[in-house]
Amino acid sequence: MTKKTTIVTSDDILLKLCQSVTDVLTMGTNSEVTHSGFVQKIEKTSLKPDIGCFVLFDGGFSGWVVINFEAKAALEIYQKYMLNMGIPKEELTSVHTSDEVGDVLGELMNQMLGDFSGKIQRSLHISITQNQPKMMAFNKKISVTIDGHVEHPESRRVCFHTEDCHNFFLEFAVEATEFIQLETFKKEKELDPDAILEEEMAKHEPVKTAKPAARKRAPRRTSKSKVS
């Protein structure tokens, strides 16, 4: 029987990144975030209004990620994330250029890339590193090209949708690459931080010992004296 060869392409890697974005934002905002089933081929990546950032990554493969939020999408994600964290609504900003919005979106972007790195590590057994994301507000389109980082990048754009029907876009540029599986290996299990924390807490909890059941005393027998 001929062994089937598994090949992972740059588009497969992009799908893992899209899954990380939807997973992190859905959990962080406690609302549904989805991505389009179609991917658009583009000539080059760019930062667009109203707020966004780009992140370089290197290691097992090289490239960069650009994410662009419209103002309404940025505010929706920021506000739902903060409300999910228990922050009162009256304390939240309604201006997308606020530092608070940029800080929250930057932290979420960092979580997305961390989740993505974990997926790559478990599925391809390679590691990638990236720089710290920093969100910035823009009022004009800015092209993003990194000289010498990738010779001939393949660029893609994916549209995401929030629960309130606001859109944001992820652009992905990576070197043309394929990963060909030579032999089967056991995939690493995805770690659940909450489960690990609960397990560690359980180890340090005092062990409750059950009290031994009280022994029932047998009724005392009294001997009757014989009368002659």
Task: Give a nutshell description of this structure.
It holds the Pfam family DUF3334. Residues 196-228 are annotated as: Disordered. The protein is built from four helices and twelve strands.
What does this entry look like structurally?
With 228 residues, the protein is of the alpha+beta class. The chain has a single domain, classed as 3-Layer(aba) Sandwich (Chemotaxis protein chec). Helix content is 32%, strand content 25%. The protein has four helices and twelve strands, in the order βαβββββααββββββα. It has helices spanning 10-29, 71-84, 99-124, 193-204; strands at 7-9, 34-35, 40-42, 45-47, 51-59, 63-69, 128-130, 136-137, 142-144, 153-161, 167-175, 178-180. Strands 2, 3, 5, 6, 7, 8, 10 and 11 form an eight-stranded antiparallel beta sheet that branches. The chain is flat and about 100 Å long. One of its GO terms (biological process) is chemotaxis. Keywords: Chemotaxis. InterPro entries: CheC-like_sf, DUF3334. Residues 196-228 are annotated as: Disordered.
Provide the CATH architecture: 3-Layer(aba) Sandwich
Structural class: alpha+beta
| Main pleated sheet | 8 strands, antiparallel
Could you state the CATH homologous superfamily? Answer: CheC-like
Helix content: 25-40%
How large a portion of the residues is in β-strands, by DSSP E? Answer: 15-25%
Run of helices and strands: EHEEEEEHHEEEEEEH
- What's the CATH first level? Alpha Beta
- What is the strand tally? 12
Region (Disordered): 196-228
Keywords: Chemotaxis
GO biological process, one term: chemotaxis
Biased composition (Basic residues): 213-228
